[in-house]
Amino acid sequence: MTTLTTSVGAAGPRRRAQRRRRAIAVAFVLPALLLLGALVVYPVLFSVGRSFFDAAGTRFVGGENYAEMFRDPATLTAIRNSAIWVVVAPTLLTGLGLILAVLVEKVRWATAFKLLLFMPMAVSFLAAGIIFRLAYEEDPDKGVLNAAVVGVHDVFEDGSSYPTARPREDLGLRKGPDGAYNTTGAVRPGSAVALGLVGVPPGEMPAEAARATPAKAAADEVRGVVYLDFTPGGGGRPGMIDTAERGLPGMAVEAVRDGGTVATTTTAADGSFRFAGLADGAYTVKLPAANFAPPYEGVSWLGPALVTPAIIGAYLWIWTGFAMVLIGAGLSSLPRDALEAARMDGASEWQVFRRITVPLLAPVLTVVFVTLVINVMKVFDLIYIIAPGPVQEDATVLATQMWLVSFGGGNNQGLGSALGVLLLLLVIPAMVFNVRRFRRSQS
Q1: How many whole angstroms separate alpha carbon 212 and alpha carbon 195?
Q2: First to last CA, the chain
Q3: DSSP state of 44
Q4: What pTM, to 2 d.p., does this model score?
Q5: What percentage of the chain carries pLDDT values higher than 90?
Q6: Domain boundary among 234, 259, 292
Q7: Distance CA 146, CA 148 (A)
Q8: Could you give the CA distance from residue 289 to residue 165 in angstroms, rounded to a whole number?
Q9: In-domain check, residue 10
């Protein structure tokens, strides 16, 4: 009886101590729970309820907003783009992170290299969006990418020297449907033609351009001169070669008969050209359209066709370091004896990588991939900043569409709330998968 009384008496203080510890734990957790409820739980519940009301929030519409989502072309575009993001961005990032993590192990300055690749993570999405918006500018004088593309293009293909040149009206040349200029009258062997053009700024004339002089032709040839029909300082006679006017060198000229080109040549420094050995008959002198082709301006990175890949490229620049560091941490924990044993058995580096490294890293790769899937589902800043206004709808994803519908001019918070609920439902499975995998790894 004494023993039973003692144990019952001791249980009371233990229970009081447990209650006191629980109270202390609740006191510490309560602020976090209040914040979680105010910032997460309440907005989620409010959005779910708001999604069943109209734009003004006064009339219950049931599932009409959810049906409208799948009738709206802009929302369908957002769903399609979100699917592209979910498939492409995490896959590329996980692959790049894996390759870089393996390669970094073999370089001498591995720490510096990792720091360099991880630095974009310190840049906000706003700053990164501004950087890439400037880099993607279509004007080669502003956009660094198009400056490089134009530079490479011009190395292999020369552009026209006279993109703005044109003839004076009713002075012997007319423009054809292909953009070329042809003489209006028939030209026969033994005659000379003067083809005056305007629209070339004197400061942009080739340095080798010499003074133009009227041409004289022999009986079996056609001669001519292509010149800038403009006298610096004013004066001069339109359609006539004046002493201060210069020829246009390097311009392609063709002799055409019965619709076919029979001879081609290029103008000399003084703009002169010559077709020799022509048979008797009527010809047309033609200045091909290539002489007047506009300069190559590069790629329209932010056009409707490329805007989504371009923004994904900016996202890769920011997050590649994150994937590389996480995968590198997993790589450093691999059992080195298994790798060395495979090499001693004659396996190549590719076989070691494919058959040992990747299978052992599968848990880490899965975590990285799923984490990135969750992240890209919420991407907003880059798309809103990089995509110009005219192509905003071509680049939109669910997060940007939700904002545009609710606050960016749509003013329909019922439909916007429905989009938010859809986004939440798409994110939850990936979050649950990640949490379960994390718990299994801890057990």
Answers
A1: 11
A2: 44
A3: H
A4: 0.75
A5: 18
A6: 292
A7: 5
A8: 11
A9: no
